[in-house]
Amino acid sequence: MTISDRVRIKDVRVLSDNWTPLKTTTFEYRRADGAWQTQYRETYERDNAAAVLPYNLARRTVILVKQFRLPAFIRGYDDLLIEAAAGVLDNASPEERIRAEAEEETGYRLHHVHKVFEAFMSPGAVTEKLHFFVAEYEPDMRVSDGGGLEHEGEDIEVLELSIDEALAMIADGRIIDAKAIMLLQYAALHVFR
């Protein structure tokens, strides 16, 4: 029996569609014991996205970004978040979109990006699946100051950190963005070994 055999969608309503749709769904789920149970869930319908960690092996550095995030602020985080550069696919391939996003946010024009994994970041409420990449960079690949797109409300600071400092920032709580943590740990295990 597949999961499709265990789910019956009964009703879907759009609660909000200001930025991306927020929907409420009524469905029946067939439990492991065979009983059908009616459940209700709200889902935030986000397009898939991609994130990248640019790294320089010789210098043992990585590029991260720092920016304001309203949900983190609402939850009591009174600082800018240090993150991996990322963006929504907008109907592009993950590789194509992450190159463009990296250039917009970091100012680096990355030549070769390497996909390392995919993950659902908050599968209990958000439909978005994230494609994770790493990419080598050199100082001469910087084509602008980065900072993001002002018309999208972006006001991004670019950070170049040693891998050791970035990992220490996870340990002491200065980096709490999941995508940055995942990519930095990947880099520690597979890139900077």
Automatic annotation (TrEMBL):
Mg(2+) binds at residues 86, 101, 105, 154. Residues 45-183 form the Nudix hydrolase domain. GO terms for molecular function: hydrolase activity, acting on acid anhydrides, in phosphorus-containing anhydrides; metal ion binding. It comes from Bradyrhizobium stylosanthis. Belongs to the Nudix hydrolase family. NudK subfamily. PANTHER family: NUDIX HYDROLASE DOMAIN-CONTAINING PROTEIN, UDP/ADP-SUGAR PYROPHOSPHATASE. Its cofactor is Mg(2+). This is GDP-mannose pyrophosphatase. It comes from the Bacteria. It catalyses: GDP-alpha-D-mannose + H2O = alpha-D-mannose 1-phosphate + GMP + 2 H(+). The keyword Lyase does not apply. CDD domains: NUDIX_GDPMK. GO terms for cellular component: cytosol. GO terms for biological process: nucleoside phosphate metabolic process; ribose phosphate metabolic process. Homodimer. A motif (Nudix box) lies at residues 87-108. PROSITE patterns: NUDIX.
